[in-house]
Design a protein that fits this description.
By secondary structure, the chain is an all-alpha fold. The protein has 16 helices and no strands. The termini are far apart. Helix 5 packs parallel to helix 7.
Length: 308
């Protein structure tokens, strides 16, 4: 009962715009640490469901011409970061004597969009469930850390809103952490980061195809299950087109955009609620080391690219 009261209270604070995303994440982590998670409640699953809705709502705050401009500016950086991350993941994974599938999953999650990429690539390479769980765990841990670290680094280097948004979209894994860190930095950063991140997420399709082609164990059954593309990408694009071509509803779009931002804060609380010490320990050292190396290289490399 107390656990449900805590969740309800944070929900009211988040949806009322009274707490920011980093604080919501920390509150969730503390409640999980004390064991105050409601029984028979899966916060990670709920966060994924609500995040999809939040991202679609955020689309109402973006104009299509702006989205195309942001995507064009970031295209070179996105392609280079994806290719180098995947290659580096295989080389470092081999040096650490990790299983090839595990290294590929971690590299895919780092290169494109965290859990979504891991879930899509896993069936294509016939990864075992424990390999996928391990890759998801280490990416999840770094995602949570990025929410707190990236805004601090951005302010330290005095990055403008546009640059920070692009950097977050390229250097942070999951969409939830990208938009959470960007929201903590500013509204313009949020718009830029969301647009660039979803454009980057579309690279799941060629990555799955390539992963399937180079996998000797690929079968038709796995091929069918590998075609996983998050539906919220299309919802986000649809909302953006509505906001662009039907400008008469501007007042409604502004309200929907605000609702998406506040729902996002609650999603990040749920992310924190599912991050336990047990989950951190289960991730292991070598996979976490690989993920950390990839993350640091991508973060520093992409920031240097943007500041050149």
């Amino acid at each position: 009962m107390i656990a449900w009261i805590g969740v309800g209270l944070v929900a009211l604070l988040a949806l009322g715009g009274l707490i920011a995303s980093p604080l919501a994440l920390v509150i969730g982590f503390l409640l999980a640490g004390f064991g105050w998670v409601p029984r028979h409640f899966n916060p990670a699953q709920r966060a994924k469901q609500l995040l999809a809705i939040a991202i679609v709502l955020l689309g109402f705050g973006i104009q299509l011409d702006t989205a195309l401009a942001v995507t064009g500016d970031a295209l070179g950086l996105i392609v280079v970061s994806i290719v180098l991350t995947l290659v580096l993941a295989l080389l470092v994974g081999k040096a650490l004597k990790l299983e090839l599938s595990t290294a590929h999953l971690i590299g895919s999650g780092t290169a494109i969009c965290g859990g979504s990429a891991i879930a899509a690539v896993g069936p294509a390479i016939r990864a075992r469930s424990e390999q996928m769980a391990l890759a998801l765990a280490v990416v999840f841990i770094l995602n949570s850390l990025a929410l707190l670290v990236f805004p601090l680094v951005g302010h330290y280097f005095e990055l403008d809103q546009y640059t920070f948004g692009l950097w977050a979209a390229v250097a942070i894994h999951d969409t939830s952490s990208v938009v959470g860190a960007a929201q903590a930095y500013g509204d313009e950063a949020l718009l830029v980061a969301t647009t660039a991140k979803l454009a980057r997420a579309l690279w799941i399709v060629p990555l799955v195809i390539l992963s399937a082609l180079v996998s000797a164990r690929y079968s038709d059954k796995q091929g069918q299950s590998a075609w996983v593309l998050p539906w919220f990408i299309f919802g986000f694009l649809g909302a953006t087109c509505i906001a662009t071509f039907l400008p008469s509803g501007e007042a409604v779009y502004a309200w929907l955009f605000l609702a998406g931002k506040r729902l996002l804060v609650f999603c990040l609380f749920l992310v924190g609620l599912s991050l336990t010490v047990k989950r951190i320990r289960a991730a292991g050292f070598k996979p976490l080391l690989l993920a950390s190396i990839l993350w640091i290289v991508v973060a520093i490399g992409s920031l240097a690219w943007l500041l050149k």
